[in-house]
Request: fold
Amino acid sequence: MARIVMKFGGTSVGDIARIKNVANRVKAEVDRGNQVAVAVSAMSGVTNQLVDYCTQMAPLHDAREYDAVVATGEQVTSGLLAIGLQELGLQARSWAGWQIPIVTDDAHGKARIEKIDGSEIIAAMEKGHVAVVAGFQGIGPENRVSTLGRGGSDTTAVALAAALKADRCDIYTDVDGVYTTDPRIVKTAKKLDKITYEEMLEMASLGAKVLQTRSVEMAMKHHVRVQVLSSFSDVPGTLVCDEEEIVEKALVSGIAYSRDEAKVTLVGVQDQPGVAAGIFGPLAAANINVDMIVQNTARDGTTDVTFTTGRADLERALKVVKDNMKVPCKSIITDKAVVKVSVIGVGMRSHAGVAQTMFGALADKNINIHIISTSEIKVSVLISEEYTELALRALHTAYGLDAA
Ligand code: ADP
Ligand code: ASP
Ligand code: MG
Reply:
């Protein structure tokens, strides 16, 4: 007998027929003699609709009320799944985040889980009941409903698996595993049997939304065995695991992209000590993430400073920069039509030339690189958004990742 957490994403619970399909999959695990807790997302499209309602009410709304609204999608699907399981003859009940409780901090809209009390869920599972948990939500300070950031049901599932000391956390979605790159864009993408926590963390944080970044952080920290599988087929999925479990390590395991980027260039900034601190200090104080940064060598006593930030943060970032400029710059240029493409692999640690393959492949396609950044296991480039698909395909081929 194993204790399993199963998570079903938005497409998997997209309508009543699909929720019935999920109920059957859950029953199959129970029939194998396993203890099961389930985390569910809202029906696909529902969270977007709820976010849109908040924006229509007021573009800059109270984040605590935003959470009260957007958390409702998961309450619907958790209740419906519990009904579906009861119809199949199982004992089941739903739990909202606050009922467990899943305690979070007060960062409404992107709250972090601080603590989960698994006792009621464990008691239910030990009686052979199925516990259905609304994903994406928790309870913050002052008894306010909180949400975990978009894609947060993955994090609910992994955190629950850690709290319940589950043997496995199975993430059911609309693709049958983690691929070398987004299979919806590159048709020759290959499914990976296994991927390391570290690589999956980079893939997720660099844009592959198949798992929320925080869910991978959590899995890595608590050694939760995570599998990514399809809700619609029975083929084996991808196991996210420790590096030691992977015998053949590819040089590059995956390629990710993120369209959530914007580029800002400060042209002709005075070249003197304290300039970078003067630009980036106020951005950090305003909680605006800055990702890639380049500063050119000075000529005529001035230099250009370029950085990237999230597309949604661009206007705020510009205001902060302008309000805090202590030294003059000639002009500020912005570009939202950019994408960050990254190649990821633990094999890079011990091999030279990985970046050169990337630059060569992009040059062959005449794709200009705006910014480059590297770390131990990834190389990222910022390019014009119009070349996203071309670049992904060219890199996929250049690193020998195409499916036979
Ligand atoms: P869910 O609603 O089940 O949480 P998501 O839409 O959040 O599903 O995540 C699944 C999607 O992630 C897939 O449909 C796929 O387009 C996308 N994706 C991006 N990169 C990858 C990758 N490397 N492997 C698999 N899927 C990926
Ligand atoms: N429903 C939420 C979202 O769309 C959470 C999730 O699906 O994981 O972001
Ligand atoms: Mg998701």
User: Anything to note?
Assistant: The domain at 262-335 is CATH 3.30.2130.10 (VC0802-like).
